[in-house]
Design brief:
heterodimer, A: 207 residues, alpha/beta, two-stranded antiparallel sheet, 10 strands, B: 204 residues
Chain lengths: 207, 204
């Protein structure tokens, strides 16, 4: 499994996932989409990288945590996107919500304060702070081998990547698939336009 | 007083659903638990409430039961419908070709109880930001009543359908309506009025 290049995405049956995953730039990065309710060892066969799209229900993922742990133990790469409550289904990952300010940008001088702190990481190649800036939903804690890739204004991580559970884990509180699929927040479409090509080359180049 | 069923598909239950405006009550059920209710169980409810976060593939698998339910009762559908689960929802969702302040401006048609006392401006902006209410059209079926429109081309936005059996469907093609239920704002009463209206299904 560790060398399998196949990328799969877990979707939750919502309209916004159906839209996001059928609309450029998020319509071509994956070879298989797996309904959350059908996540199993069988549907993960041959999958090297699994993207859990934003806002998949953390409680329903928790019901499948053993399967996800086996995927990681087999060397899989797990990409856990925002608003999925990873604290409910990934051992050792903590989540602290932040009050979301949906209006921060009305003040022309305002800054949300999200910063990339690992510009050399291949998943963030060519990306700027502005590409990560729409809403802040919360911050994460993770085991020490996980490296913070981006932080909020308080300097706390909202994106980490590193070895985890026998495989690798990328986890973030950003929710670009959701907004892209809702036709809301163009920054999220820009994020996916850079992040997904980075993801594809990362999964084939860095094994 | 009406009893509603909310099919939950998120970890947290939204406040206005968990604590509905009195005197109405809302029973919260994990969406997939719908499969464990028999049709008689559903008859106990005057209406059903579906979030934009609902698993529409699962609702599609329950289409026959939902169709029978809305024939006599109230049904609120929030969001865009990409996996149709009722005949009225088969028209597809079309986003506004351009989403600008002008095209996102909401206009309210005449005389519907739900929007009484609310202006288009109230729906267009949340704290000065446009687009929260809706960003496109869920194509209405023949016979639908258009309640609100978007932009200078009057793209249909909210609409309702009355069923011959007294049931009523309210389609809101945007963010969940209850996110506008903030005290102290002009839209604070929209949610209770919508529940009043939904609860009137089957009563003429």
């Amino acid at each position: 499994m560790a060398d399998a290049p196949l990328i799969a995405v877990v979707d939750n049956g919502t309209a916004y996932h159906a839209t996001a995953l059928s609309r450029p730039p998020a319509d071509a990065f994956y070879a298989r989409s797996i309904p959350l309710t059908e996540l199993s060892d069988e549907t993960l066969t041959g999958v090297g990288t699994l993207v859990v799209a934003c806002r998949c229900n953390g409680r329903w993922l928790a019901e499948r945590r053993a399967c996800l742990a086996r995927f990681l133990a087999g060397g899989g790469r797990l990409i856990a996107m925002g608003e999925t409550r990873p604290d409910l289904w990934l051992d050792g990952v903590g989540f602290s919500p932040r009050e979301t300010n949906y209006w921060w940008w009305l003040d022309k001088e305002a800054r949300l304060g999200i910063r990339i702190v690992a510009p050399d990481h291949p998943l963030l190649a060519g990306m700027t702070d502005a590409d990560l800036t729409w809403h802040e939903h919360g911050v994460l804690t993770a085991p020490p081998q996980m490296r913070p890739l981006a932080v909020n204004a308080e300097g706390l991580p909202l994106m980490l990547e590193g070895p985890f559970g026998g495989g690798r884990l990328f986890v973030t509180t950003l929710d670009p698939f959701y907004h892209h699929g809702c036709w809301f927040m163009p920054a999220t479409t820009r994020f996916l336009g850079k992040f997904l090509p980075n993801l594809c080359s990362w999964t084939t180049r860095y094994r | 007083v009406a009893r509603f069923l909310f099919l939950s598909s998120t970890v947290e239950v939204p406040g206005p659903v968990a604590r509905p405006p009195p005197p109405h009550t809302i029973a919260v059920l994990d969406q997939y638990q719908l499969d464990t209710l028999c049709d008689d169980d559903l008859l106990a409810f005057d209406g059903m409430i579906l979030s934009m976060h609902a698993d529409q593939r699962h609702l599609g698998a329950a289409a026959r039961r939902l169709d029978a339910f809305v024939e006599r009762s109230g049904l609120l559908v929030n969001g865009h419908v990409m996996h149709p689960f009722l005949p009225e929802l088969a028209g597809g969702f079309a986003p506004l070709p351009e989403r600008t302040l002008e095209t996102l401006t909401v206009a309210i048609g005449p005389g519907h109880d739900v929007f009484r006392g609310v202006s288009g401006v109230d729906l267009t902006f949340r704290r000065g930001v446009a687009g929260f209410w809706a960003r496109g059209t869920q194509t209405p079926p023949r016979g639908a009543t258009i309640l609100t429109t978007l932009g200078p081309k009057h793209a249909p936005c909210d609409w309702t359908v009355a069923r011959p059996g007294g049931g009523r469907l309210f389609m809101h093609p945007g963010n969940d309506v209850w996110t506008f239920h903030e005290s102290g704002t002009a839209t604070a009463d929209l949610w209770p009025k919508l529940l009043d209206w939904l609860g009137g299904a089957g009563h003429g």
